[in-house]
Amino acid sequence: MALMHTLSTQFNDATDFTLSGATVSGGKLNIVADTSWNGASTTASYDLTGSYLIVECEPANSGEPPAETELQFRPAVGDWQSAINVYWNNGVVGMGRGIDGTFLNAFEIAYNSTDHKYLRIRELAGTIYGDTSPDGLSWTQQGSIATSSLPITALYVLFQAYAATGSYVAIFDNINPVAAAVNGSARWWKFL
Fold first, then answer.
1. Which of 66, 102, 155, 164 has the fewest CB atoms lying closer than 10 Å?
2. Burial annotation 123-142 (CB, 10 A radius, 16+ → b, else e)
3. Which helix (H) or strand (E) is 180 found in, with range?
């Protein structure tokens, strides 16, 4: 099983993803948030053990009216009840996990589009951490959850969005960029 950090794309095409109500254009994954849950899912599963996923996100309307943008890690494409869930809605960003339909929150904080531009989900020694960053270089740990009873060795990655009213667009970009030195400092622009 490939490790999660080997999933890397600038969304120049939809290779490795199944799209529903989403498009890939301009190097970004664009998801229409309307009254249907739309999104994209990886066609293969990945192992989060000792690994990570970094992503840049512009959530669909993070204020009113309610619109929700989600990043989920699921053991099976349709299994939302045992997922690691990162969500942006009503002005917050948060992370939690579902175990047999019960949701446990790891963190929920006021969303700031500058400070929380990048998100990193990582696993280390039986704990999943949720980190945010303004630049993809310096990270702030926002919360953590234990992986007990949570399958993490074969996870599909799902990007999705929904809006109760209206229509908005959620944008995901830069999945797992690799740090490359540019003029002596690291920049997140090089991909595997």
1. 102
2. beeeebbbbbbeebeebeeb
3. strand 178-182
For 4-190, the fitting CATH number among 2.80.10.50, 3.90.550.10, 2.60.120.200, 2.60.40.10 is 2.60.120.200
Query: In which residue are the tokens 């099983």 written?
Result: 1
Output the CA angle 12-14-19, nearest 5 degrees. Answer: 140
Q: Which residues are registered as beta bridge partners of 166?
A: none
Using one digit for the tens of pLDDT, what is the confidence trace for 86-118? 999 888 999 998 877 778 889 999 999 999 999
Q: Is 80 helix (H, G, I), strand (E, B) or coil?
A: helix
Amino acid identity of 123?
Answer: E
Q: What is the pLDDT of residues 19-39, one digit of tens each?
A: 999 999 988 999 998 898 999
Exposure b/e, 58-79, CB count within 10 A at least 16 = b: bbbbbeeeebbbbbbbbbeeee
Residue type, 33: A
